Amino acid sequence: MILLEDVSKTYQTGVRAVRELNLRIDDGEFVFITGKSGSGKSTLFKLLTRELLPTEGDIMVNDFDLGSMKRRQIPRFRRSIGVVFQDFRLLNDRNVYENVAFAQRVIGASALEIRQNVPRMLKLTGLSHKYKNMPYELSGGEQQRVAIARALVNQPRIILADEPTGNLDEANTAEIMGLLEDINRMGTTVIVITHSLGIVEAMQKRVISMERGRIISDSGQRTEKRQLSIGPVRTASHRARSRRRPEA
Ligand SMILES: Nc1ncnc2c1ncn2[C@@H]1O[C@H](COP(=O)(O)OP(=O)(O)OP(=O)(O)O)[C@@H](O)[C@H]1O
Ligand SMILES: [Mg+2]
Fold first, then answer.
1. Atom 4 of ligand 1 has which residue's CA nearest to it?
2. Could you tell me the pLDDT band of residue 220, with boundaries at 50, 70 and 90?
3. Is 178 left (phi over 0), alpha (psi -120 to 50) or beta?
4. Residue 122 pLDDT > 60
5. Whose CA is nearest to atom 19 of ligand 1?
6. Average pLDDT estimate for 152-166
7. What domain range is 70 assigned to?
8. The three-state (H, E, C) secondary structure of 48-62, written as one string
9. Which residue in 12, 67, 129, 183 is a FRET match for 222, CA 20 to 30 A apart?
10. Residue 193 pairs with which residues in a beta bridge?
């Protein structure tokens, strides 16, 4: 769950990028955060990933209190979220398999776990046949799918994406949104920042709109709670996780 209480962020320049935000996002939701350029979306994103700390207010993400969290807890917090960016941010000197495996190596996963989890994520994202390719040999949509596989491989509870389709054409955008929807159906909370009203309207999810650092509307429309067992693609990792968190 994500909980923001009276959160404000003022940059050193004096810009108040986010003002008095109060927000709750429950586990399993699919939420869009939208608003014009400069409305504070990316600032909110960075507050949620703890890249930035708020000037005022409290932020809870996955039971971590981001303001009072000890430094040594940060890696565990980071593992509980997966992040995706507009510009993919892949390691350009490693192939697809290694890009996804790298996220597992960083957290000290065993060779066996890596051998099991990476192919599973590549299958989920439709990239099994491209596992040996280098990022520069992939289309934009494929590169973003690698980034999503990498974000998911450590089984985070939340996926946060800042303009994930900003560099993609319409067909690839639809594909990425469909993939995020599948991931959400399997139980992961999905938060997508986009300024594209077309996407927001097409998807029919909860929409939070920002303007000048404030939330000006929140459709509050919750994603339907579906049975985990009817998800179209299920992975052993998700099964393991739903066993650990039977309430999901
Ligand atoms: N590091 C920074 N230092 C100072 N001001 C910043 C910084 N980052 C962002 N801002 C300012 O904070 C405000 C909100 O920026 P933010 O990047 O959160 O907007 P955004 O909604 O993500 O915009 P976009 O749609 O263009 O990505 C803007 O006025 C911006 O100029
Ligand atoms: Mg932004």
1. 11
2. confident
3. alpha
4. yes
5. 38
6. 96
7. 2-244
8. HCCCCCCCEEEEEEC
9. 67
10. 33, 162
Minimum-distance ligand to the CA of 16? 1
Tell me the CA–centroid distance for residue 200 and ligand 1, in Å: 21
Residue range 201-216: mean pLDDT, rounded? 96
Structural domain total, the chain: 1
The best mutation among 37, 160, 165, 210 to test binding of ligand 1, ranked by most ligand atoms within 8 Å of the C-beta, falls on 37
Judged by its nearest atom, the ligand closest to the C-alpha of residue 18 is 1
Question: What average pLDDT does the structure give for the chain?
Answer: 90
Question: What CATH number did the domain enclosing 175 receive?
Answer: 3.40.50.300
Triad 196, 13, 70: Cα angle to 5°: 85
The two structure tokens encoding residue 89: 């941010």
pLDDT tens digit sequence for 73-105 = 999 999 999 999 999 999 999 999 999 999 999
Ligand 2 (ion): which residues have CB within 5 A? 41-42
* Residue 201 pLDDT exceeds 90: yes
CA of 95 to the centre of ligand 2 (A): 28
